[in-house]
Every structure is written in C-alpha cells, then in structure tokens.
Amino acid sequence: MNQQMKQLVESLTPEWTAWRRDFHKYAESGWVEFRTASKVAAKLKEWGYEVRAGKEVVRDEARMGVPSAAFLAQQEKRAVEQGAEQEWLPYFSGGFTGVVGILDTGRPGPTVGFRVDMDALDIQESEEADHLPAANGYVSVNPGMMHACGHDAHTTIGLGLAQVLMAMKEELNGRIKIVFQPAEEGVRGAKAMVEAGVLDDVDFFFSGHIGSGVPLGEIVCGARGYLATTKLDVTYKGYSSHAGGHPEDGKNALLAAASAALNMHSISRHSQGSSRINVGVLQAGSGRNVVPGSAFLKVETRGATSEINEYMLERAVQIIRGAAAMHDVQESIEVVGMANSCDSSSELIPFIRSQAEKLAEVHTVHDFVVAGGSEDATYMLQRVQDNGGLASYLVIGTTLAAGHHNEKFDIDERVMAIAIQTYALCALHAGELEALGRGKSGSQGQDGKITE
Amino acid sequence: MNQQMKQLVESLTPEWTAWRRDFHKYAESGWVEFRTASKVAAKLKEWGYEVRAGKEVVRDEARMGVPSAAFLAQQEKRAVEQGAEQEWLPYFSGGFTGVVGILDTGRPGPTVGFRVDMDALDIQESEEADHLPAANGYVSVNPGMMHACGHDAHTTIGLGLAQVLMAMKEELNGRIKIVFQPAEEGVRGAKAMVEAGVLDDVDFFFSGHIGSGVPLGEIVCGARGYLATTKLDVTYKGYSSHAGGHPEDGKNALLAAASAALNMHSISRHSQGSSRINVGVLQAGSGRNVVPGSAFLKVETRGATSEINEYMLERAVQIIRGAAAMHDVQESIEVVGMANSCDSSSELIPFIRSQAEKLAEVHTVHDFVVAGGSEDATYMLQRVQDNGGLASYLVIGTTLAAGHHNEKFDIDERVMAIAIQTYALCALHAGELEALGRGKSGSQGQDGKITE
Amino acid sequence: MNQQMKQLVESLTPEWTAWRRDFHKYAESGWVEFRTASKVAAKLKEWGYEVRAGKEVVRDEARMGVPSAAFLAQQEKRAVEQGAEQEWLPYFSGGFTGVVGILDTGRPGPTVGFRVDMDALDIQESEEADHLPAANGYVSVNPGMMHACGHDAHTTIGLGLAQVLMAMKEELNGRIKIVFQPAEEGVRGAKAMVEAGVLDDVDFFFSGHIGSGVPLGEIVCGARGYLATTKLDVTYKGYSSHAGGHPEDGKNALLAAASAALNMHSISRHSQGSSRINVGVLQAGSGRNVVPGSAFLKVETRGATSEINEYMLERAVQIIRGAAAMHDVQESIEVVGMANSCDSSSELIPFIRSQAEKLAEVHTVHDFVVAGGSEDATYMLQRVQDNGGLASYLVIGTTLAAGHHNEKFDIDERVMAIAIQTYALCALHAGELEALGRGKSGSQGQDGKITE
Amino acid sequence: MNQQMKQLVESLTPEWTAWRRDFHKYAESGWVEFRTASKVAAKLKEWGYEVRAGKEVVRDEARMGVPSAAFLAQQEKRAVEQGAEQEWLPYFSGGFTGVVGILDTGRPGPTVGFRVDMDALDIQESEEADHLPAANGYVSVNPGMMHACGHDAHTTIGLGLAQVLMAMKEELNGRIKIVFQPAEEGVRGAKAMVEAGVLDDVDFFFSGHIGSGVPLGEIVCGARGYLATTKLDVTYKGYSSHAGGHPEDGKNALLAAASAALNMHSISRHSQGSSRINVGVLQAGSGRNVVPGSAFLKVETRGATSEINEYMLERAVQIIRGAAAMHDVQESIEVVGMANSCDSSSELIPFIRSQAEKLAEVHTVHDFVVAGGSEDATYMLQRVQDNGGLASYLVIGTTLAAGHHNEKFDIDERVMAIAIQTYALCALHAGELEALGRGKSGSQGQDGKITE
C-alpha cells in the first residue's frame, strides 16, 4: 500500500467528514444543487483543476425532470442565503448544476474518468434523537430534502479523490476527469452530461455507490443487470361538473387514469427477458361531489434490455393515449427520467480487485453483484464501452443505520476513505490496463484530444 | 257492433288460424322473410289491393343488421323449397322483404295506416309435448328460428284486416295502407320503410303488439315511454401469438373488449332522463394458450329521449375506439338497429277506446301503458306525427303459455280476431277523427298523392 | 305588514350585518363551530330562550365525518383565542356543536320549528381586492376555512329570528324551536340532531337556503327532488415493495382502488328512478418506483328515493370489498355523510306564499323548485312529516358575487332581513295551519310533551 | 449399428405406417382414447408384455379436465363401432385410458422407462386435396378431433419400440416399461399416471416429441426450460334481467369476467424468473338486450419454477374470487391441467448423443433445446429424478407440412423408425448408465420391487 496516500488520507479525513456533514445539512434535490455544485467547482479550481461547469457539461435538451423556472429561481436564492459560492452560480443558473474537474499530467497515458452524484431526495429528514445527523446538528435544514441515499458522501468522495490525485500528480500519467453529476434520483441527469460529450474521451471509467446492502469492509468490483428504465409523468385534463346535478357534462379524468393504470399493468410479459411496469402514484379529483376533471400519474417502465424497455414504453404510451381517448380527456406525457441497461466490463474486474485488496480496511472483495433496479451512470458506462473503453460500477460497503430512502438513513463515514483510496489506486495503476488493448484514444498521446 | 263484420270474422277465423300456424311452422328471421312476404303479397294482390313490395318500400341504405349475401341467398333457396310464391321473390331478393297493401276508395277521406311485423327470432323452438305447436305439428321446421314473440299472429292480423276492409270497402272513405314490416327484432327494419316514404301520406296510424303482459280480453289504447335505442356490433381484430412462447407479439383483443365493456358501463348517468347501456354479449379468443386475436361484442344504448341516446352512443363509440387504441387492435363498429323514443298521440286514445269498447270479447280497456323497452314502430309514429298526423301503438291482450322470447312461447289465438276487429273499426270510423283538425294531407282529396 | 316587525328589523339590521361579518371572519368548518355555537348559545340565553346544547341535542353515535380528536382539541383552543364564550365550550367539547333555543309561550298552540346551519367549507378564501370581505376586512382568518355557501348568513338569520320572535312574544302561541345545526357540508350533522329527538315535537317546520340561483327579491316556498345520498371514505392498505427489485412482494392498493372506481361507476342504472355514483377523489401511492401500498377514495352514492340510494350503496360496498379481495389488500369504509330524499309538504306552500307576499322586498314568489343535489335538512323534514307534521325547505333569493363553493362567493346581505321576516311571519300565523288538521302534538296543549 | 435391429426395422416399417394412419383416421381426444388404448393393450399382450391398464395405472382423483359422463359413454360407444378391442374396454370405461407394457428380462439391471402419448386435438381436420391424409383416405372420421400434434406417431413409436425390444429381448437386462399416456393436450393426464406409481421404479426414463421445429435427420438429446403451468376453467353465474326494463335486477357475469381478465393480466411480474398469465377465451352473455347472467373463461398461468407458477395461480384465484364478489355472482374454478417445470438430466445427454449418432439417418445431434411452452411428461421426469434416477425429454426431428395444431399438420413418417431405433438403443445400452452411480433401485435385482 502506498505510504504517501495513507498519510494523506489520515490527515484529510477530518476535513472530508466536515464536508459530508455540510452537504448533508444543506441537502439539495435534483437540478437545484446550486450550493453543492458551487462548493465543488470552487474547491477544484482552488486545487488547480481545469473546471468545466454548467451548460458546457450539461446539455440543455437532454435534461429530464427539470423543475419549474419559479422553483429553480427560488432555490437559487435559497442557495445564496446558505452560502453558495456566488461567482459560480451563473454557470448553474436555470438548473445546469453539473461540474467536471480535469487534471492533465501532460504525459502520455489513458484518460481515466470517475463519476459521483450530488443530489438529495424529496424526503423529510427525521429529527428524532436516535438519528445521528439530528443529534449532532447536521440534519437537513431544507424542508422536504434529505441526503437519504448517500450522495453527500459521493460528492465528498469525488472531492477527496481530487485532492489525493492532485497531491500525487507526479505518479500519474495521461488525464484524469472527475464528473460531478446532478439529478441521479429519478435517473434524470446522466444523459445530459453524456450528450454534452463529457465521457467521449474517457478510456477507463469508474463509478459506484456506497452501501446498497454491502457492509463496511467489503467491496464489489462490478455491478451488472441494471434494468433499462424510463420514467413518465402523465397528466389528464378533463372537465369537472357537479356529480349530482350534471354528471353528463363531466369528462372524467379519474376514470381515464384508473383505466390507464389497470391496462398498463396488464401489458404482456416479454419472452426475451425481464420487464417491469409501475404506476407508483395516482392522484385524481378535487371533491367528493365533483366529476374529477384532472388526474396525475407517476409511471415507470423497465426492461432487461433497452429493447424490452422500449417495448414496455411504447405499449404504456399507447395505453395512456387510448385511455384519454376513451374518456375524452387530454393527456400530456413527459419523460422525466431514463437509464440504460448496462453491465460492467468483465475485463476490469481483476484489476479493480487487485487495487481493492491493497487496502487494509477491506477484508472481502466480490467480483459481481446483480443489480435489482436502475442507475443512470449506465449511460456513461455505455458511452465509454461504445468508444472501445472499459467501465465498471462498484459497490463500496458501508453499514447503514436504516435503508436507502428511509428518513433515518445514515452511513458509517469510514466508507469515504475506502472509496477514495480504491478510486485513487485505480487511477495510479491505470497504465496496467493498456495491456488489455483497450483505451485507444488515450494511447494517441499527450494531446488529450477529445474524440468527438 | 257491426253485424256484417261479426259474420265475416266468424267465417274467416279458421282460415286465420291456419295461416298463423303456417307462418309459425315456416318461421323466418329478420330480412329473410322470403316465404312469408311472398304469401302476403300474393294474397293482397288476389284480394284486389295495390301492392308495393321490395326496394320500393324498403330503402336499401337505411336497412340495418342485414345478414351476409351468402346467408340471404341460402335462405331464399330455402324459401323456394318451402313453397314461397315464386313470382314475388324477385322483389325481395337480397333482403328487401317489405310489403305494403293499398286500398283507395276513391272517396275523399284520410289515409289510415296500419303496420304489422313479420320476422321470427333466433331461437330454437321447444319440441316438448307440452308445447302446443310441437304437439300439433306446426313447430318451426327452420332450425334456430322461432316465432317466439307473436309476429306470426301480427302478420295474420294484417292479412285478416285486409280481408275485412276489402269486404266492407263500401263503408270506407279515403285510403287504407297496410304495412308489413321485416326485421323488427333488433329494431332493424322500420327505419328503411320510413325512409322509403311509406308513411309520408298517412294521417292516422295504428300499430301494436299482442300479449306483452296484458291478458286476453284487455286492450291498451296507447303505449308511451319507449326508449330511443341504438344497437351496435363491435369487432376487434388484434394478433394472436403463443401465450407461453411469445406473448409480447400478441395484440390482445380480449383485453380491449374487457376494457371497453367495463368503461362503457361506467358512462355517466344523464341528469335529463333515463339512460341505459348494455354489453349483452362478449366473445373473445380461440384457445387457452393463445393471446386472443379477436373479440366480438353486442352492445346497445338507450335514452329517454333521442338526445340522451345520442349522448350514450357517442360516449360508447369513444370508448370502443379508445379501447382499441389502448391495445393496438383494429375496431369495427356496425349499427345494426335503431329506434326512436316516441309516445302515442293522446288525442287518439278516446277514439281507440270507443272502438275497442264495441267488442264483446273485450272487457277492459286501459288508456296507457309505460313501455319498458324499445320498438321500431316508433319511427313510423314519429314520421306520422311530424307530418301533423296522429299515431298510436296499442297492446292487444292475449294469455301466454310462456313469456316473450321463451322457447315455449305460445298465444291464445283468439287475440287475432280481437285485433282485426279493433283495427277495422278504427278504419271504418276514421272520419270522426277529422274533427280533431288533424290529418290534413288526407283531406286534400282522392288523388292519394304522396307528400314526400 | 306588521308595523312592529318592520321597525324592529330596521333597528336590528346593522347588528345583524355585524354578526354575519364576524361569523364570516371566524369561519369554522363542520364539528368545530366552537366559537360560532358559543356565541349563538350565549345570545339566546341572554334573550331569555331556554337553551339546549351539546350532547343533549347532538347524538354521539349518529354524528358522521367527525375530525380526529387532535384536530378537535386544536380547533377548540383556536376558538378560545378567537373569543369564544368560554362558559359554553364544555357543552361543545369533542365536536358536539349543536344548539337549540326554545321559546314557550305557555299558551296552547303548535310547536313551530326552524333550522339554520353554521359550518364553513374547506376552501381558502380569496384575498383579492374585488372580493368584498377581503376589501372590507372580514375575510376569513382561519386558513382553509371559508363561508362560501352562506351559512354565516343562515346563522345570523336564526339569531335575528330569535330576537324578533322574543320581542313579539305576546303575539305568539304554542312553542318556538330554533335549531342551529353543525356540519351540513358533507351532510354530516342533521341526523345526529334528529336522533337526539330535537324534531320530535315539532308540528310545522321551516328551513331553507339563501341564493341557490334565485336572485334577491324572489322566494321559493318549497324545494323537492332532493336525492338521498351517502358519503363514503374508503381506505385500502396493501403492502409496498420495490417495483424493480421485488414487485411480487407488493400488494397493490392503487390497482384495487382503480378497479373499485371503474366498477363502481359501472353499477347498473335503476329502472325506478335517478341514481348517481361518484368517486370524486382517488389518491394512491407514494413514489414512482414503489408498488403502491395505500390508497384513499372519496365516494358518494345518490338515489331519487332512499331505496335507490340504498341499492347504489350496497352495490358500491360489494365492489369496494371485492376489489380489496382481488388485490389482497385491507379495506376500511367509513360513512361520513348521509341525507334523505324528501319533498316539501305541498299543504304548506300556499301558507308560505301568503306570508312571503306580505313583504315589500319580495316581488316574486315561486311555489316549487326541483333540487339538483342533496341536503341533510331532509332528515328533519322527514321526521316532522313522519310524525304527522308539515315541513318545507325554502329558497330565499339573494344575488351572488360568485357561485356557491367558489373562493369569491359573496351575498347581498339584504337577504337576511327578508328571510327573518318570512320565517317570523310563518311563526306568527302558524295558528292558521291548524285548520289543516295536522300538527296534532301541538294541539295537545302547553305541556310541550315530546311525542316519541 | 446393430444389424438385427436394422433388419427388424426394415421389415416392420410398413406395419408401423399402417398403424399410424389407422390411429390418425380414428383420432380420439383426451380421456376418450378408447379405441387407441384397446389396440395398444391387445398388441402388447399378444407380443408377451405384462399389461397394466385403466385404474391400475391412472389414479382417478388425479385426472384433470375429464369430459362429462355422457360424453365419455357416447365416445365409448363410438369406439366400439370403430372396431375397439372389446375385451379391453372395461379397463378404460369412464376415461381411464392409460396402458403400461412391462418386459422383465429376469436378469439384473436397471428399469428403463419410455413414455408416449395417445390423444388427438379438438380440431377439425382439413379435407383439402393438398392435405396428404385427406388425399390418401386416412383423414380423421371423428368430427372435431384430429391428430394435429403427432401423437398418432408417438403411439406407433411406443408400439414399434415394444416390438423391437421383445424381438431383441436376449440382449436386454433389467426391466423395460413402456407407458402409453392419455390426455397430454391441456397437460391433463401425466399426473394421474405418476400418482398411480407408474414411474416409481424407473431408473432411466426417456420421452420425447417429434417435430417441434427440428427437421428430419436431427435429434435433440434433452429439452429444458419447460414452464410449470396450471390450466383453469372459470365459470361465473350471475342473474339475467332485461337491460332496458329492469337492469338493476341483473347480476352481471360479463363485467365480473371482464374485471377478472383485466386484473389477472395485471398480476405483478416475479423478480425470480419468468411468469405468464393468459385469459385465452372469454364467452359471456346471451343476448344484446339481456344483462349477462353467465360467463366462462379459459385461463392459464405459467412460471419458470413451480413456486412462481404457484404465485401466479394464487393471485389469479384471488382475483377470480374478488371479481365475483364485486359483481355478486357465483364463481366456480376447475383445475383442468397442470405440468411441472423440469429440466432433462444433463448426465444423460452424452449417452443419448452416443446412441443417436449410431443411426445413419441422423446427421445432426444437438445437446439441448430451450422449450417455450409446457409439457406434462415433466411430472414423470421429476418423479424419476426425485427417486435418484435420470430422465430426459428428446426431440426427434421431422419435416412438417404445417405447424403443430394446424388443420393441415402432417409429418414425414420416416421419423418413426428413427425414434424407435434411438429409444431401442438407449434400452439396449442402459447398462452403461449404471456407471453414473444412479439408478440404484434397478441394481437391486430382478424382483422388480417398487421402491416407494
């Protein structure tokens, strides 16, 4: 194990803990990570990174599930009040809250990319005494927003990694890219960064999640089996009328929504692999004696492959539209999230294993885990693999106080140092990967040219 | 009571009984009354009536629920074999099985119209010994066709009326029109005769039904409250696939039909009056392990007014189409029947009562009954009333062996003489009605011109 | 027209206006009319009425749609802060907010009853300048509660009537009962007062509503055609699971609710009269990627008769339970409101007309109006009629700024004086009604004994 | 290749062809294979087999989808008329149409089992000239029954195998059991033979299907991935009423069926493997204007494992019952078929391959195929494997004139000799399998004791 890194980590750990708790306290949900992103950008700049931020790394048309302009403006104001770095806010204004830090060694070598996500969830954090953040004064001060999935730690891991790599710059070759992504919850943000070309020059790519059922001291080198998914918001507009006096004047949006929900769940299984459909939320109507004039549904489709997800999505949209036609109401369908199905590159697994096994804090290393759900880092893995690169999504174990997305979710903060070191070792030893005959763009030399 | 009529009726009754039993034995369903209509036309001609038949009195485009050409041809052949009057068949070929008999006295006076219907039902008649037609050898010889509603008697009543009126021609004024309608079951035939202009010159119009819950010896002068109705046949064509092997290839017509049925029944009530919807039949799919590729529904809507029926129909069609769109199947909708809402003219009631009370066989006369269902004579009533005429739909009581549409339905045949005499008296005394200031077209003289 | 009354009304009108605006400002929704009811009780007591309040006039088990204990307690505290008459609060504590004022003349004569209602709606009142209550400083200070149906005026009319009758006590005979009912909205309160026996000794009964589409200066003597109705809150409890990872573990409450909604709307029409069903609100699920573990529906049934409503209700309950069984979820059904179908007594109409025509402010008097919806005063009319008494529900016209239940609803306050005088005249002349041979209990003398 | 066998096959082939065409002509559907089974039993007896037949090998209570007693009796009569072996009919009477032939060599060695099925499908065979059986005079004479899946050849293969093995008896050791199963279509018959203990002493078991997409000259040694399945017939009994006159009196079985169908298809996917649901047939209602009083559904569930099928089945039954409760109709559910999920034993594959490769007529041998559907031989494979034996389900290729279950289905009859030889070689070389340490019961010697 690298002695220099060990000392660095020891000295920086208190700072990392402080940052994570600060991000936790000022939890910001997807596309309004104004304060978080500004802190990230300012630090990267300070440490000597080339920083790209905002529209340069987040393609406008590819963003999904962006809140209303009014909410964005209000949240930006809130971020200012909570100490955002104001010189960076113009980049993020309007919800372009992505940041990329680049370290170019000037030496030949591959481009190694890392990705962390920054957004909180729409959950009201517990204020009970047995919840550590509440007891220790860093419970979220933003109502209805909470880091209940660990992205506060992810952001900190990205920053810690940036510090360590800059400190050990002389031992690196090629280029390092650290991607700070907004709006992972609801799988809304990755696509916009991929479409902005952020991943196009990356030869070896690493992302990951802490926890996810893996305890502290264990690492999984690669996840596979992520389901492709699409998230839809559906609104039906009908016409309200008095249910006693003039029921025939109504156009019943509730019945349209009920029919759509039932029929979407009845979409046929697919013989070529797993599929899923869920109408997770249905809200319709205003009063008991009023024919319901409006309805709203939150829907998601999934598939073992993008083709199967596409099949589910196409059928769902047919049903949503047919149900509207049935009840003579107007539908509007908004795609508010998307992710690919994607597997980690098997060629990377032994390499990651060999790095992870160098850490004294890690007692068990697993090759693979089969993912249950969806994750939009898959867009990034896919883009890297499509360009001939290798990519993997790790799970870095940490023991949890309560499950992900629970109002008492909490982590063992020691996971951050483990993750930072694992990633840093991957970067420092990336040269070994070139033997795999992959990562061609990187081998084209020190010009670091972007292939797109 | 008219003595001449009494003697006539007495002498003709055995013949009427024989005719009714003959029609009963050779029961013919809607639009294939080839044998029945040919017998009617031949007799009317023989007795001196001006006879109009076929397309002249049945407008092609207004016919509904006409069977396939193959079935029509096969049935025409069957009629020949069963002794149809062959010189009349060319008129009826292709399903134009309507007949009108006209008696013009040459004297000034109103045009008085009567209508009877001739079709049987798609029911297999009972052959059990306790069923009189079976015991006495006039059970239907046509499989799946049975006079289970009494139209065999109606046809006979029309013929008997024609005989009596011709015999008493010198006591009549104006003109007499006796309309023999096909395809009343499923309310398919009346509209085509109305659209052919058959009712356009009628000043006073009488139609009616025997039985209907009224016992022998009682007469109801006028029915009201018939619901407007539309009958639809709906077919969904999807795509079959193996339910185990490739369910995703299927386009599920059964689920489209199920959704349509549920949602049609959920069409909102109408605040302005009664409405009805019924999916009476749903047949879908071919095998247990096959995604159903086809479905068929028999649907009807009703309304207290034509507007309400229109509202129900429009909503039903939206739902049928929306359900098809939902499940990506093709729908086809055929209107196979229609009837108006319509009330008997109240001005006619005292007149009819006074005629009916002349009969010794009638001990009770009711003014009105509220109809539960639908009947397409309403199109004829409506047309007469729209032209300033008066019209009524009577019920002539007869005690039944079993309910209408039952496989053991049977009547007390004495009802025929009662009906014939009631109608004949209405014709003989129609002059009294002119005092009501109605029936203007008739008063235009003996030219008998058709107003359309 | 009575001169004394005219002067009284003139002098009292400013006070009435002030009261109405005070009630408007401190709008209180159903079962939490703590402040309003305490003001009413205190004034009646002050004026010499025998006052009955709380559980004595509101039967606990017959109350419907009562809020949670916590909400009741919080609202009682709120009422104290807003100046409720504290000596009366113990009567109302826990939501027994009914009051009855009795004036016994000691002279023989009928018992004449009046009923007004006191509750506000769950609506946020408009604060825009063109809304008079906002402009003039008596907009509701209670968030989400607003007198948008005119019950503030109804309460004031009850009080004004009490003042006038007490002042003219010497011209009265028999007994006067003025009933101040809570929770009319959602038809929740009348039944509890009827079941407490409040109406059992009333011979002639008058209630009514201001506005309802009738302009100022017009009066309708009797409403009929109120639909019987039942209001249900339905909750489904299923089991949530991750829609991607373990969908089969879920018990889907949303699909149960959707099936229930669709199938309830498909309950068959009734041939004996109007029926209605409405699922006005459906709320289900918590997150897009979670199998929905809970759902909530607001349902109402209606019928032209109580039998038809009963039929609708029974079918709705079967469907609610069957849908729960289908999806293996637990249902709970709460009846939160009920009203009878009931007609005003036609014998009362000429009497009311003759009183109303005495008022100079009234230029038009209608006999009847057909009600579109439901109203729980029908329980009271029914009880009085069942006991051999006569009862009517009037409409006292007033020109509205916006429709009932709208956030800018406002009345022409002059209606209050018109209503008070109409009611007072009915009380003063009730003796004339005894000629109708009704109101027997009242004629039994001054003991005021309750007949039940 | 065994010379004796080759000559045997050559000489017997014309006989086999004749038998297959005879079975084809007298096609008999499931549980009424009276003629076929009697021919099989008579021949086996004649050749010296120990024959077990009827209830001894078909357990009554485990039979599924048995036709009505009337139909069974009528078909038995039909079989007599078509030349059934009358001495065997008493065994089969009532639908116990299974036969087992046993050949005990008296020498130590394993018990080797084979299974063929005998039933035809409910399909009307094509009589067109391009359909060989029609052209050559052996088209099915039984209306609506046709060997459209090749079980006529299967039966012949079982008989041919019996002939060959008896002829080569001296080269065999241990025991041979040839099972002739009724009612495979609809997966109704295997369970009853397994429950009768027929498979309990079998060490090595072979069954298979001809065709299935594999052309003549190819053999697949083992099929896997059969889905467990359950077949349900569902009947709803409601109450019919006139849809215009008294709709409220009806209990709508069609709406119950429609709700059940929609909701069954909406049963959640299972995360542990494939699942299927199909409502293949829905028939409801009698007439357009009648509230439908009855409905019938053919349903099937499937699962990659028996647990998943169980989950699907349990949910389906809940929904069927809940839908009945919703619409106040009576449901009845009959299980009319069942099959396991089951894989062929991989240890058998190289053995089968080595036998198949001996045949000159076979040019290609595949190890495995993944089955799309379901097959009830899986019950037999399972029972053998549970007892420590080995079992495989083969596919013996034959080129088809039209797909399975098509009215023009026809085979290349040369497949029969290939199948017979493959099976015979498996029997002759079964001793080699004992090296696998399986088939212990067989090694216990010549007592042929049943191990269970």
> Which structural class best describes the helix and strand composition of chain A?
alpha/beta
On the 0-100 scale, what is the average pLDDT of chain A? 93
* Number of helical regions of chain A: 13
Low-confidence stretches of chain A: 439-452
End-to-end separation of chain A in angstroms reads 37 Å
Please give the share of residues in helix of chain A: 25-40%
Overall 3D geometry of chain A? globular
Give me the oligomer status.
Answer: homotetramer
Largest interface: A-C, 44 and 43 residues
Number of strands of chain A: 14
The CATH top-level class label of the largest domain in chain A = Alpha Beta
Question: How much beta of chain A, percentage-wise?
Answer: 15-25%
The domain tally of chain A reads 2
The ordered H/E elements of chain A are: HHEHHEEHHEHEEEEHEEEHEHEHEHH
Strand order of the largest sheet of chain A: 1-2-4-3-5-14-6-13
Topology-level CATH name of the largest domain in chain A: Aminopeptidase
Q: Strand count, sense and closure of the main sheet of chain A?
A: 8 strands, mixed
- The CATH architecture name of the largest domain in chain A reads 3-Layer(aba) Sandwich
GO molecular function, one term (chains A, B, C, D): para-aminobenzoyl-glutamate hydrolase activity
Keywords (chains A, B, C, D): Hydrolase, Manganese, Metal-binding
GO biological process, one term (chains A, B, C, D): folic acid catabolic process
Pfam families (chains A, B, C, D): M20_dimer, Peptidase_M20
